[in-house]
Amino acid sequence: MGGGEAASNPRLRLALEKARECNLPGDNIKRAIQRGTGELEGVHYEECRYEGYGHGGAAILVDCLTDNRTRTVAEVRNAFTKNGGHLGTDGSVAFLFKHCGQFLFAPGTSEDRVMEAALDAGARMSSPTRTARSRS
Predict the structure, then answer these.
(1) pTM (2 decimals)?
(2) Burial class (CB in 10 A: 0-12, 13-18, 19+), 130
(3) What pLDDT score does 51 carry?
(4) Edge-to-edge order in the sheet of strand 46-53
(5) ∠ CA(65), CA(68), CA(71), 5° rounding?
(6) Residue 33 in contact with residue 12, Cβ under 8 Å?
(7) Of 28, 64, 107, 118, which residue is the least packed, with the fewest Cβ within 10 Å?
(8) Rounded Cα–Cα distance for residues 103 and 69 (Å)
(9) Cβ contact 65:45 at 8 Å
């Protein structure tokens, strides 16, 4: 997404910075870029969405881009389990969400910074409509 030129792709620039911080060899970086741009054969990426419930029953949608669905679902399930949640079935929470925009943050961004950006953009908390039961 965004192409293989770091000058015009901020996501790639960030990934390259992180790779260099970890002393990843240049050949590995080059192959990863070629795989991501489709220059290497045999690599197919697909988007997938997982739904689940976090701590306290909070509904969560997870969008992924992967070349291995089996590995990805195992990692997502593990993340849910480690943090007191569980993976749901397709459609279990998607109906609660409406796509209004997208925020992209560097890994490790503080929760306060994320909430501040969301609130500044007009995000608000809402709950599903509940009907009151009448008592007789």
Answers:
(1) 0.54
(2) exposed
(3) 95
(4) 59-66, 46-53, 86-87
(5) 105
(6) yes
(7) 107
(8) 24
(9) yes
Is it the case that residue 131 has pLDDT exceeding 70? Answer: no
Task: Give backbone dihedrals phi and psi of 89, rounded to 5 degrees, phi first.
Answer: -95, 165
Residue 50: in which H helix or E strand, if any? strand 46-53
Taking CA atoms, 72 is separated from 39, 40, 52, 60, 109, in Å, by 23, 21, 14, 16, 22
* Interval 52-78 mean pLDDT: 90
Element (H, E) at 32: helix 26-37
Rg, the chain, Cα only: 19
Residue 130 clears pLDDT 80, i.e. is over it:
no
Tokens (6 digits) for 87: 């993976």
